[in-house]
Design brief:
Number of helices: 7
Shape: rod-shaped
Low-confidence stretches: 16-28
Number of strands: 0
Largest sheet: none
């Protein structure tokens, strides 16, 4: 529990006791400016709560961007593997309908930020290219593509980039509001104390 939360509860209890006090003397012992003090504590709490929300939103956006980058990297690896296979099969791979179909599926899946679709097409394409040539470069490229396909399957946050950007903007906005509210609440509390003690 926050110290401010405990303090707020104590203020409220003291204020209630003052209302119920059997004599003016006991009522006078109630803390001054309880309402303003609590408002100031609330503003501080809101400011403190806003900070981790911004950090969480930033982390979520970074994760989504990383997932999207994984899909794009998979597509580039597919292009490299295709180029390598074409080189060692004298263009036969280029004219292969199954290869062309998987390349198309992969590109479309990446455009949709579809992790599972990208992974499936990458693995299928890698298998087709590996069968097309025994050349070591082709085999290495196909293996790299398979590995990236496995990573792509886990890149499920890729479609969330725009949403998480909006979430971060909201978190920043809420933090700015919370920051802005602290000073007026503090000033109101100080003014009240000055009047009470004046």
């Amino acid at each position: 529990m926050k110290i401010r939360t405990s303090y707020r509860a104590a203020l409220l209890a003291a204020s209630a006791m003052a209302v119920l006090a059997p004599s003016p003397a006991l009522a006078a012992e109630a803390p001054a400016c309880t309402t303003e003090n609590i408002a100031y504590l609330d503003a501080q709490d809101a400011q403190e709560d806003a900070e981790p929300k911004v950090r969480a939103a930033e982390a979520a956006l970074d994760a989504a961007k990383e997932d999207r980058a994984t899909l794009e990297k998979t597509e580039r690896a597919a292009a490299d593997a295709f180029a390598s296979a074409v080189l060692w099969t004298e263009g036969a791979v280029r004219d292969s309908a199954p290869v062309q179909e998987e390349r198309k599926k992969l590109t479309e899946a990446v455009d949709r930020n579809d992790a599972a679709g990208t992974a499936d097409a990458a693995v299928a394409l890698a298998d087709l290219l590996a069968k097309a040539s025994d050349d070591a470069d082709v085999q290495d490229s196909a293996q790299t593509l398979r590995e990236l396909g496995d990573k792509a399957r886990k890149a499920t946050a890729a479609p969330e980039v725009e949403k998480r950007k909006a979430d971060l903007e909201t978190a920043f906005s809420e933090k700015a509001k919370a920051d802005k509210a602290v000073r007026p609440a503090r000033d109101a509390y100080r003014d009240c104390l000055a009047k009470a003690n004046g």
